[in-house]
């Protein structure tokens, strides 16, 4: 049995004046960034490029902070994807399923939790992400090369992961976990998420939920998860 390791980071909330140095911190071949890197595009790109010096692959999804004041979210996500088209070390998970050694990685924003963009119809945006996640999970059930599925969301997947501290907005939001209805073969084993300040590492109904928020905490290290294949 082989184990694949992933370093998890999220919620960096970097400004152009912030310093961020990851030298000597990597513990895995791969890194997953669960959103909220920077609302400054140049800072976001520089940070991902910096991380790529220490990993064979860096996989990221944008969060609400990354998308602040962006007029067209779809175009912006595609622009970010195109920015790394010439390298195989950084990949956007936006509408892009990546398979590594039998593990499929699916990423969404989710648009759940505390709302920061007041100009968007979050309910519809969240439904679109849930539908995409459900359909992607469903399609991978019979995929012979996919043994396990790793889900990445910038938003918190469900109320239980707030441990009683869930924001009021969740009362009107569909939990992202509803997409697991498409997991008929129980291939989803791990779910990495962002946008919550407290550290979570728990198993609910066979799925391992984990985050590793930065929020300017020091010292800050990656959190590693191992997935057996």
Please trace the helix and strand order, writing H or E for each element.
EEHEHEEEHEEEEE
Give start-end ranges of low-pLDDT stretches. none
Number of strands: 11
> Would you give the CATH topology?
Purple Acid Phosphatase, chain A, domain 2
Shape: globular
Strand content: 15-25%
End-to-end separation: 6 Å
Average per-residue pLDDT, rounded, comes to 92
Radius of gyration: 16 Å
By CATH, the architecture is named 4-Layer Sandwich
Q: What is the CATH homology-level superfamily?
A: Metallo-dependent phosphatases
Number of self-contained structural domains: 1
H/I helix tally: 3
The strand order across the widest sheet is: 5-6-7-8-10-9
Sketch the major β-sheet. Answer: 6 strands, mixed
User: Could you estimate the helical fraction of the residues in percent?
Assistant: 10-25%
Q: Structural class from helices and strands?
A: alpha/beta
The first-level CATH class name? Alpha Beta
Describe the structure.
This protein is an alpha/beta fold and 229 residues long. The chain has a single domain, classed as Metallo-dependent phosphatases (Purple Acid Phosphatase, chain A, domain 2, 4-Layer Sandwich), CATH 3.60.21. The protein contains three helices and eleven strands. The protein has a six-stranded mixed beta sheet with strand order 5-6-7-8-10-9, covered by helices on one side. Strands 4-3-2-1-11 form a five-stranded mixed beta sheet. A hairpin with a 2-residue loop joins strand 5 and strand 6. The N and C termini lie close together (6 Å). The model has no long low-confidence stretch (mean pLDDT 92).
């Amino acid at each position: 049995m082989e184990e694949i390791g992933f370093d998890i980071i999220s919620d960096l909330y970097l400004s152009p004046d912030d310093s961020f140095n990851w030298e000597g911190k990597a513990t895995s071949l791969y890194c997953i960034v669960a959103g909220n890197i920077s609302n400054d595009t140049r800072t976001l790109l520089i940070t991902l490029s910096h991380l790529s010096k220490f990993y064979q692959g860096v996989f990221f999804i944008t969060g609400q902070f990354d998308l602040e004041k962006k007029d067209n979210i779809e175009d912006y996500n595609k622009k970010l994807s195109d920015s790394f088209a010439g390298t195989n070390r950084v990949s956007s998970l936006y509408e892009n399923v990546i398979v590594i050694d039998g593990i499929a990685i699916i990423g969404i924003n989710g648009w759940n939790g505390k709302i920061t963009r007041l100009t968007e119809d979050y309910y519809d945006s969240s439904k679109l992400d849930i539908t995409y996640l459900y359909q992607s999970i469903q399609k991978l059930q019979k995929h012979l090369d996919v043994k396990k599925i790793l889900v990445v969301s910038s938003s918190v997947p469900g109320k239980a992961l707030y441990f009683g501290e869930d924001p009021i907005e969740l009362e009107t939001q569909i939990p992202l976990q509803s997409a697991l209805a498409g997991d008929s073969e129980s291939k989803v084993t791990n779910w990495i998420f962002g946008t919550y300040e407290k550290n979570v590492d728990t198993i609910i109904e066979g799925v391992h939920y984990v985050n590793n928020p930065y929020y300017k905490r020091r010292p800050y290290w990656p959190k590693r998860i191992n997935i057996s294949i």
